[in-house]
Design brief:
The protein is mainly alpha-helical. It has one domain (2-210). It is built from 12 helices and no strands. It has helices spanning 2-14, 19-36, 44-60, 68-71, 74-85, 94-100, 103-122, 131-145, 149-152, 157-164, 167-181, 184-210. It is globular and about 45 Å long.
Length: 211
């Protein structure tokens, strides 16, 4: 696992990957961390603080190459991919069980780290406002709020699950957004990821109904 992390980190450092593959590599790294260190969620307040700090810095210095992964939304998208794709894994697998322990934290971090990217576009600091991206971001707000354990404990489990279904609209909107703004190679990467997710999610749901 450590070897894979180092290899991915080297590829990112060398800048050999396209935007889409960069997000995929970051997502793989976050997934490995969530699987290998399943107690990441115990330090959630510290991760939130770091994410907020990075967000503020990236808005202030949105031309800094050191913060490009934040203000371009790469870190937020990568975390969202982990949150998405763990949902199509078999529930009984050790990978799914370990990562799901950190899924709520990753969901909140994804929102915090996508916020600078959304803010810079919505308020015109950068070009390229996209309706699907805005829709996805707006829908992320209530889902992020109910991801906090303090709020979740106060909700009826059935109501919580019903609100969470809005996540599918977010996923679809984000995929349309990144496909819209990406170059042709990255469009292909995002299209393949979207197809894999939809296909495997439907298969999992059908198997569940059959059981």
């Amino acid at each position: 696992m450590i070897t894979i992390l180092l290899l991915l980190a080297m590829l990112l450092y060398l800048g050999l990957l396209s935007d889409g593959l960069t997000i995929l590599a970051l997502s793989a790294m976050f997934g490995i961390v969530a699987y290998k260190w399943r107690n990441v969620h115990r330090l959630a307040p510290y991760w939130y603080g770091i994410a907020l700090l990075l967000g503020v810095l990236s808005v202030v210095w949105n031309d800094s190459p050191y913060l490009s992964y934040v203000y371009r939304g790469f870190l937020g998208y990568a975390l969202m991919l982990v949150v998405m794709f763990v949902g199509i894994l078999p529930n009984r697998s050790s990978v799914a069980r370990n990562i799901k322990k950190n899924r709520g934290v990753y969901s909140i971090l994804s929102f915090l780290l996508i916020s600078p990217h959304a803010a810079l576009h919505v308020f015109g600091a950068l070009d390229g406002v996209n309706l699907f991206g805005i829709v996805a971001y707006v829908l992320m707000v209530p889902l992020t709020v109910i991801s906090f354990q303090l709020v979740r404990r106060e909700m009826d489990p059935r109501d919580w699950r019903n609100v969470q279904k809005a996540a599918y609209v977010i996923y679809l909107s984000l995929f349309v957004h990144v496909i819209w703004v990406g170059d042709w190679f990255d469009k292909s990467v995002y299209a393949v990821l979207a197809t894999l997710y939809v296909n495997n999610k439907l298969m999992k749901e059908l198997r569940h109904e059959a059981d």
